[in-house]
Structure formats: C-alpha cells, structure tokens
Amino acid sequence: MKTQYYTATSLDGFLATEDDSLDWLFPLGSLKDSSYPEFISKVGALAMGSATYEWMVRNAETVAAETGSPWPYMQPTWVFSSRNLPTIDGAAIRFVKGDVRTVHSEMRAAAGDMNIWVVGGGDLAGQFHDAGLLDELIVQIGSATLGKGKPLFPRRVLSPSLRLVSVHQMGAGMAELRYTVDIGRAAGVGTV
Ligand SMILES: NC(=O)c1ccc[n+]([C@@H]2O[C@H](COP(=O)([O-])OP(=O)(O)OC[C@H]3O[C@@H](n4cnc5c(N)ncnc54)[C@H](OP(=O)(O)O)[C@@H]3O)[C@@H](O)[C@H]2O)c1
Hints:
The protein is of the alpha/beta class. It has a single domain (3-191), classed as Dihydrofolate Reductase, subunit A (3-Layer(aba) Sandwich), CATH 3.40.430. Helices cover 23% and strands 33% of the residues. The strands form three sheets. Strands 5-4-3-6-1-7-11-10 form an eight-stranded mixed sheet. Strands 2-8 form a two-stranded antiparallel ribbon. A two-stranded antiparallel sheet has the order 9-12. The chain binds NADP nicotinamide-adenine-dinucleotide phosphate (NAP). NADP nicotinamide-adenine-dinucleotide phosphate binds at residues 7-9, 15-16, 20, 22, 25, 48-52, 55, 80-83, 97-98, 100, 119-124, 127, 150. NADP nicotinamide-adenine-dinucleotide phosphate binds next to strand 1, strand 2, strand 3, helix 2 and strand 6.
C-alpha cells in the first residue's frame, strides 16, 4: 500500500518540454518492455495535475490507437485543477483542488490494498512529499537532455532521506532508479 511517483525524465531532470511535448521520450523505449506492466497491475488509484491530464485529452486519438482506449486506466483517477476541464468518455475521473492530504485519504480508501500512483507533474509529486505521503520514487532516466522544461521534482531533498534501492538498465535509452523515501528523516525538505 505505497504511494509512488513513477515517471520518466530526461537526463537533465525534465518531464516534458516547456510546451508539454513528450515527443523526445517515445523513441527511447517502449512501455511494454519496461517495469510498467507489473507496476500498473498493482495500482488502485491515480493522481495527476491538469497539464498531465490535458496532454491525455489532446492526445486521446494517439493513446486510443496505441492502447485501444482514449483513457487507458481502469483505476479511478483524481485530477488536480482549479479550472473546469473537459472529461474523457469512459474515464473514472474526479476533479479536485487544494490540499493533497484530503484527496490522499479518499484515494487510499478507493485503492484498498493496492498502491497509489502519483503520475505527475513534479510539483504535484512534491506536494505529496511535503505532506509526508510519498513512499517511493521510481524514475526512468532517458538518454536525452532538454535544456529546459517541466521539472521532475522541484524540491530540495537532502541526504539521507532518499534511499537508492535498485538500478536497472533498459537498453541504451533508459535507466530506472528506484528510491524509497525515508519520511522520518526527510529533514532537508524545501521548495526551490
Ligand atoms: N515524462 C513522463 O513520464 C511524464 C509524467 C507525467 C507528466 N508528464 C508531462 O509533464 C508535464 C507536467 O506538467 P506540469 O509540471 O505543469 O504539472 P501538472 O501537475 O501536470 O500540472 C500542473 C497544474 O495542475 C494544477 N494543480 C496542481 N496542484 C494542484 C492543487 N493542489 N490544486 C489545484 N490544482 C492543482 C495547476 O493548474 P490549474 O489549477 O490551472 O489547472 C497546476 O498548474 C505535462 O506535459 C505531462 O504530460 C510527463
């Protein structure tokens, strides 16, 4: 029953370009050849920010062509936004705003004994971390740099609160690092 931030990032720490493109990411590897199938099989609830959700809305046709559905998640999803956003047919989405702790309680109840996936972006994952709710970071580092873009995790988290537990090479395009977050020792936490 963990809360996990599972994401891909560029080598220089960006999730997406400044204009929310992920085109740099797809040539680097395939989800089906990654840890994703096993990871998602243990997820009971998802959280994402509005830019991440709007990428799904904008790319619904591509997602449908690849997965058979414009919304590939069976699990309930909490989308954080202060705005009114369009819905996607067949998606179990709740739009929420504000304190992640309240939402996390709802997600925990829905997920039961499965994990919670914080999809991104980086600041939303940071909000869960700030509240002491993030248990693991699972980061697939792509062999590409972007120079600027949407940050992986805009927080200052100092040693020793992150504990590296595994390193896995995925061909020449990716390396996956898994960290546990030692919440009790997360002393050097701050926004940047
Ligand atoms: N590389 C990867 O594997 C990967 C993974 C995840 C995401 N991505 C991409 O990375 C980019 C992330 O974008 P982003 O950094 O802008 O992050 P984001 O979390 O997707 O969106 C940020 C927005 O979410 C809303 N929000 C966040 N916290 C909130 C809260 N507590 N209450 C209410 N609203 C809240 C705010 O917008 P509003 O209130 O204005 O709606 C905020 O500006 C996207 O392009 C996404 O597609 C890539």
